[in-house]
Amino acid sequence: MEILSFKISGKMAHFRKYYANNTAFSFSIPPRTAIMGIVAAAMGWAKDSYYEDLASENIQIAIRVLNPLKKSFHRLNFLSIKSTGDMAKNWSSDFRGEGGRIQTPFEVITAWDLAKADVAYQVFVKASDNGKAVYESIKTHFLEKDPVYNITLGTANFTANLSYIEVFKDNQIEERSANDYVQIHSAVPVELVEDLKFDKEEFQNYNFVEEDMLPGDFIANGNREVRKMNRLLFSITPHPLRVKLKGSYYVLKNDTGDLNIQFMDA
Q1: Using CB atoms within 10 A as the burial measure, which of 94, 217, 262, 266 is most buried?
Q2: Biggest alpha carbon–alpha carbon distance for the chain
Q3: Which has more pLDDT, 103 or 91?
């Protein structure tokens, strides 16, 4: 067994909630489908061509928040387009601003202190039996080559960097059964959580926990139709969740200490 890990970071992020209408709300963490797009961009795969290769039946993905996150609303000043006009005759068109402007609320994710920290996530990638060939190609590219296309945190203008790429080998990975409360550093599927615990005495580790329903897989028809949703419980700070789990979890061991993670697709 192997698990590929990498860090993705940038100053700002926006992962639009697909069901939002006029107001552009954002998920706090990238949905699995967004991580699929990040991996595909780094690999140089064509748009909408990777839905089956990176499906949850083939590739498992986990995510961890590395810096405390916050959200804030900003107004985007868009052109109000009601007609195209006839620019060939008199250059009159709403695209030239003649239709006025419209302001739209837009939610942005940043670190608590924008000047001192970035939005940063650690992503973990593991292959199932059917996805080993795809995993090997991803691992080789990430370790030996630069991303083919620009990496972003959601929208095209929120550019990001890939760093701290490493592979956890079989002797660094342990699958443990969850018999008691355990500290989980990654997002965890709600259906695996039996109980969530907060200790009032540990005031220095007060956590900010969110639960959300995020897109997990697309139908392989090129239309970005959601096939599967993941209901996840996660912290928007680096502090781990103290939970009692149903089933097992993974312990990753390296020089900086142990990480307890669970995959979105579990």
Answers
A1: 262
A2: 75
A3: 103
